[in-house]
């Protein structure tokens, strides 16, 4: 039996709720995992969520240090979960939401392109749909976000479509509550 290839995966927001569970699944499937989290108070990341032995870096994805870290780590793929996750914060502080969610995904995509990272998973949201007329929701359901949060997540999806043309394979996950 052939030994599975161990792939290095960077998980942004890997100390948060979804991120920590993603890290656990990747580790269980023999991936080498690197966690990046800035531990911002609005996002919920906790060092206690990072398994022992997993390399982690306290870096903001919107910083120059993130691009340098991607160059150093050389991941095969990035699971981008880092975000400003609150609809309330997005309505109270829409510029913060745009900078973190909109700017963050651009920084991650640029780091992918610059460093030859060909695979990215993006954490979008069911909030991109807004109020829908028919259930169940599927990929053909029109997207009409009703909050800055939903809008920045949809904006991120549009940027992924652009970067696909530039050689980054992107998968979009639309999580719901």
Describe what you observe in this structure.
The structure is a single chain. Helix 2 runs parallel beside helix 4 and helix 4 packs parallel to helix 5. With 177 residues, the chain is of the alpha/beta class. The protein has a 6-stranded parallel β-sheet, with helices on both faces. The mean pLDDT is 94. The longest helix is centred in the middle third of the chain and has 22 residues. The radius of gyration is 16 Å and the shape is globular.
Strand order of the largest sheet: 3-2-1-4-5-6
Order of helices and strands: EHEEHEHHEHE
Strand content: 15-25%
Gap from first CA to last CA: 41 Å
Structural category: alpha/beta
Globular, elongated, flat, extended or rod-shaped: what is the shape? Answer: globular
Oligomer: single chain
Mean pLDDT: 94
Number of helices: 5
The residue fraction in helices comes out at: 25-40%
Radius of gyration: 16 Å
Number of strands: 6
Q: Could you give the topology of this structure?
A:
Blueprint: E1 8-12, H1 17-28, E2 32-36, E3 55-57, H2 64-73, E4 77-80, H3 87-92, H4 94-115, E5 119-125, H5 148-164, E6 169-175
Helix pairs in contact: 2-4, 4-5
Task: Name the descriptors.
alpha/beta; 6-stranded parallel β-sheet; 177 residues
Short note summarizing the structure:
The chain is an alpha/beta fold. Helices cover 38% and strands 18% of the residues.
């Amino acid at each position: 039996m052939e030994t599975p290839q161990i792939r290095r995966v960077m998980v942004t927001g890997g100390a948060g709720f979804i991120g920590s569970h993603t890290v656990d699944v990747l580790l269980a499937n023999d991936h080498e995992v690197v966690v990046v989290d800035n531990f911002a108070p609005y996002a919920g990341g906790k060092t206690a969520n990072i398994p022992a032995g997993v390399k982690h870096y306290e870096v903001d994805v919107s910083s120059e240090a993130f691009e340098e870290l991607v160059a150093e780590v050389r991941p095969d793929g990035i699971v981008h979960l880092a975000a400003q996750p609150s609809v309330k914060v997005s309505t109270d502080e829409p510029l913060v939401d745009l900078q973190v969610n909109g700017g963050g995904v651009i920084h991650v995509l640029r780091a992918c392109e610059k460093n030859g990272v060909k695979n990215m998973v993006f954490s979008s949201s069911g909030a991109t749909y807004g109020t829908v007329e028919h259930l169940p929701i599927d990929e053909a359901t029109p997207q009409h976000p009703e909050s800055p949060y939903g809008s920045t997540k949809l904006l991120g999806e549009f940027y992924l479509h652009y970067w696909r043309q530039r050689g980054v394979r992107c998968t979009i996950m639309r999580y719901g509550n």
